[in-house]
Amino acid sequence: MCGGGDCGDPFFIPQESRCSSNSTVCGRDGRTYTSECQAHANYVAVDYRGPCRGVGIDGGSCPSVTCSMTQDTGCVGVDSSGWCCGRVCGGGIVMAWSTRWLEVSSVVLPHHRPLTVTAMMSSLAALVTVSECEVRGHLTLEGHLLVLVTPTASHSPSPPPLVSAACVVEAERLVGVIRARSPRLVAALPAAALTLAAPAHTSAASACSIRPSSGLFVAAFLVMFLVPKYISK
Fold first, then answer.
1. How many domains, in total, are found in the chain?
2. Is 104 inside any structural domain?
3. Is 91 helix (H, G, I), strand (E, B) or coil?
4. In this predicted model, what pLDDT tens digit does every residue of 46-65 receive, in sequence order?
5. How far does the chain reach from its first CA to its final CA, in angstroms?
6. Domain-located, residue 67
7. How many contiguous H segments (helices) and E segments (strands) does the chain have?
8. Which domain range does residue 225 map to?
9. 84 in any annotated domain
């Protein structure tokens, strides 16, 4: 699965979202977009205004970056190494997919072109049931899909705590949908290819902040697959 901007995405469905189209922005995926609107249309959260020019270490700030779009750092949210402007308020999910399911999706869906992150995010957006929440997402350096379930742009830059909390609950519901292989998920190509999901959000006071990483998937795999098999013996 490749980035939406790289593959001529035939499944592109822009999100309706209040945004600014007059300046470049750096996405949370480390790519520069011509405008906030373009980033949102590709389901990518914005890190800061201007072209990408810095990499945060362990969620730290970047000396060359002004974080005018930073949200409340005390909220329940998602942190990730590489981001310059801190956590994103709302729920987060780290996901992995089945290559076999992706192959099936590429045959069933029209055009028979490579599936993109944008197509996957568009499919996931259809599963969100809370109107005040929207999804953003991108591939991590480890090759997993990081999905952010955040308050809509109408609540930016300081979403009400209740709205952020609702998005956290919605993210956890989506984790359950994927783990249970819900019929609604299976019918939602290409999201049906998603076979593993784990929450990626934490409270700001958490001593052990969970960041999207391969270690998270190892733990999730052990809990979901190996432990039940061991107990059943």
1. 1
2. yes
3. strand
4. 988 899 987 766 555 687 78
5. 37
6. no
7. 7, 9
8. 72-232
9. yes
